[in-house]
Amino acid sequence: MRAKIFILIFTLGIFLRVFLLDEESLWLDEGTSLKIAKLKTLEIVKLESDANPPLYYLILHFWIKIFGDSEFSVRFPSVIFGSATIFIVFKLLSSFDREVALLSSLLTSISTFLVFYSQEARAYSLFLMISTLSYLFLLEALKRGEMKFFIFYTLSVVLMLYTHIYSFFIVFSHIVFVLLCYANRIKKFSFFFSLSLLFYIPRAIVVLNQAKKIVSQGFWLPRPSFVDIGKTLIQFSGATYPMPRDEAGNVILKSFIIEYSSSAILLFILGVLIFVLHLNFKRVNPERRKFIFMLWIWFLSPIILPFILSQFLTPFYFTRYAIPSSVAFYMLASMGIEFVRKEFKDIILVLVFVLSVVNLVWYYAKTNKEQWREVAKFVEERIEENDLIVASKYVFYYYFKRTDVRTFSFQDLSGEEAEKHIRYFLSIVGGYKRIWFVSSHPWEVEGIALENLKRLMNLNSRKRFLGIEIFLFERRD
Fold first, then answer.
1. Which pTM was predicted?
2. What is this entry's stated membrane topology (predicted)?
């Protein structure tokens, strides 16, 4: 019976991840994924301009060679990774309690947060899957002491390190867990762990070069506050961004309260369940205590460690980077429910399911990603002969199909190179009656160019899309 229930949960998870997969256009970061995936394999491996390790891009590289680069195809690997995580979560908990395993897999299956990143052509879903797999293999290796599980663990750590930089926080939690709970396995663990680090040496050289650049030039993230941790937890509970805003960009308070109340209530319920688990911690057997401790350091490490480091170093705390923490959060809550009285248990389960469904409805109903498809269509339908389009992001050209018009792209330059770039741009604008300027996540050089256009030409119109603005300039006669 439980096997059939899991199959239903797993099928539901796949459906939620495939549903409306290509409804929204690729956004900036997804366009970057596609751009990098179209490079040669050696170029992907050596790439230093992108902060992410190459594994996801290599997978996507070979995937699009076989299945093409449509929105559905580009996002589908993330569907696979996200769906596989549901199974891994179930497997991880099955040896302790099948009912808890079912509830954890259900929370993973219907999590709006995880559905969102299972529908995005980025490495987060892959990172989630491999990090969860690493805990599964680590636990099996420590409990059984068998060589094959240590080998599987080593392989999972290597793959994880080549997926996301936050892998180091996961690895840190592994070390703490082994030292405090399985000291008798420390020699064997140390050998295989060291082996995984040896395989990372080629990548470490690239990371050091990137770190030097980040230290000298800074990173795009602001220094986090405790509010950001709250935002992380409410996103784990189903809140999605962007917040509802009016045409002027102001948050619509009524819509915000309606949309985010279900996530806040769900966060409260899950938090209470985790607190109940904490109150009953001494009642569980030693093996389960070890497992609960593992879940706690799994949950906290990718949140607390980067948060603390971001107070002293270049800030790099971001909720989506901490995606592995979410499944540990769901598992802790699932383990807490077994200590709830029977008459309340069913009510809580129904509430959790209903609130999760409400969050999913909000997610599917609203626009979540930048509207590059709509922007390209808007420009294509209105552009005239001898117009110039200024668009610097790759994803715009993924959608813009006209080849009979002149386009110009800025590069992310600074110093003298940026000045030369701007001077060249300003030298050619006089030859065009109208200029379409597509702005999104503008580099410094783009911002300077835009200000110069406002000074030299008349601003005819300005159109806002989610995450993107279009400026139409006309020459002064």
1. 0.95
2. Multi-pass membrane protein
